[in-house]
């Protein structure tokens, strides 16, 4: 079998589909994404095509190593995101060729169902978090995640901190003590402010706090982790085992959240999970984009022993022939070959666009300075 073509298809809202075509008619799917840089990503995938076309797609690890190591400079958002999507597609091809789901090639299922959580909204000023939490719970979910604040200056007033605590208290009161409420700080606050915020929400027993500190300084995350009993989650903006090594060795997080469309695909996230297991650290794979990334994450969730919970924003309506069905907050591990999904090409046609990026211009409303997303 030989790879014949790599095809990138941008779809709305800002996602992308990679199709790796082969001379045997098997097409592998991947989800490339590099937020803010879609054209650079498409170019990088085309350059990977210069290497991959004519090769046997079933040598997944050999190609992973070649793509990662042969450009001399390793890692980075663009190369790793391109590599991640290609890796997903090569695993999809291999699974389809064998007629088996990918998890079967990685040791088989360690669970029958995958626990999912519901998102209450990334920008709390645009959503009613309490109503949203009630809605998820009414639909059978036993876990939700919320951003409790949007913009944050390096330090904030007691009123700001009290408002964050009040928001958390209201969600807890609405859903009760048997529902898990994860809180995403989204790297929006400084370590100094995050420590104060964690203390303020601690009485309402969050499931975990995500990205309380930006990912560029592991020692700052260590300081944060030592300051609170609330478990710390991080990793959506890190890539490869190398990006997670310091976090594990310094015991800076209890939960790792690599993204299968950034961190190195199925191959690398399976390895990161194995590293994490030796530190008693759990996995909650980041998947805030399209259903191909989610499908890839489910394959890893299905076969690792240290799975915690899975993020999703799309179950694939308007993209997949059979969208994922979440029942009582759990998703059955898909059993179809490869990623176990099929595109609904007809519905998808309405989502295709030119893939041109719309720049983000997020500013603090009071002084016009740049705010973190
Ligand atoms: Mg996050």
List keywords for this structure.
TIM Barrel, 2 domains, binds magnesium ion, 373 residues, 13 strands
Describe this structure in words.
By secondary structure, this protein is an alpha/beta fold. The chain has two domains: 3-100, Enolase-like, N-terminal domain (Enolase-like, domain 1, 2-Layer Sandwich), CATH 3.30.390; 105-339, TIM Barrel (Alpha-Beta Barrel). It has twelve helices and 13 strands. The chain has helices spanning 38-52, 60-69, 77-98, 102-105, 129-138, 158-175, 191-201, 218-227, 240-249, 265-277, 291-303, 345-348; strands at 3-11, 15-22, 27-30, 113-115, 118-119, 143-146, 180-184, 209-210, 232-234, 255-256, 282-283, 326-327, 330-332. It has a seven-stranded parallel beta sheet, covered by helices on one side. A hairpin with a 2-residue loop joins β12 (326-327) and β13. α9 packs parallel to α10 and α10 packs parallel to α11. The N and C termini lie far apart (43 Å). Bound molecules: magnesium ion (MG). Magnesium ion (MG) is lined by residues 184, 186, 210-211, 236.
């Amino acid at each position: 079998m030989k790879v014949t073509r790599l095809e990138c298809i941008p779809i709305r809202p800002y996602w992308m589909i990679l199709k790796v075509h082969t001379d045997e008619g098997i097409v592998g799917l991947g989800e490339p994404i590099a937020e803010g840089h879609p054209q650079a990503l498409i170019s990088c995938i085309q350059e990977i095509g210069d290497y991959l076309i004519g090769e046997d797609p079933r040598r997944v690890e050999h190609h992973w190593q070649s793509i990662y190591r042969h450009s001399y400079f390793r890692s980075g958002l663009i190369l790793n995101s391109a590599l991640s999507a290609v890796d997903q597609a090569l695993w999809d091809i291999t699974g389809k060729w064998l007629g088996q789901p990918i998890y079967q090639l990685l040791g088989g299922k360690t669970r029958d169902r995958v626990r999912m959580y519901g998102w209450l909204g990334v920008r709390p000023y645009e959503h009613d978090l309490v109503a949203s939490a009630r809605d998820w719970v009414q639909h059978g979910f036993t876990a939700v995640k919320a951003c409790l604040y949007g913009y944050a200056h390096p330090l904030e007033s007691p009123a700001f901190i009290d408002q964050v605590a009040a928001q958390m208290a209201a969600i807890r009161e609405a859903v009760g003590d048997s529902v898990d409420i994860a809180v995403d700080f989204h790297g929006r606050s400084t370590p100094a402010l995050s420590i104060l915020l964690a203390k303020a929400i601690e009485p309402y027993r969050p499931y975990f706090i995500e990205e309380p500190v930006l990912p560029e300084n592991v020692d700052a995350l260590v300081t944060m982790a030592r300051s609170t009993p609330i478990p710390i989650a991080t990793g959506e903006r890190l890539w490869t085992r190398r990006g997670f090594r310091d976090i594990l060795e310094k015991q800076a997080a209890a939960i790792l959240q690599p993204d299968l469309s950034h961190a190195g695909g199925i191959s690398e996230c399976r390895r990161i999970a194995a590293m994490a297991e030796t530190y008693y650290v759990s996995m909650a794979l980041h998947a805030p984009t399209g259903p191909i990334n989610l499908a890839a994450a489910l394959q890893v969730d299905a076969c690792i022993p240290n799975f915690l919970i899975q993020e999703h924003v799309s179950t694939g309506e308007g993209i997949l022939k059979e969208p994922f069905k979440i029942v009582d907050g759990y998703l059955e591990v898909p059993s179809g070959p490869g990623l176990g999904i099929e595109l609904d090409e007809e519905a998808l046609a309405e989502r295709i666009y030119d893939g041109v990026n719309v720049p983000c211009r997020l500013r603090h409303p009071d002084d016009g300075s740049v705010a973190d997303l």
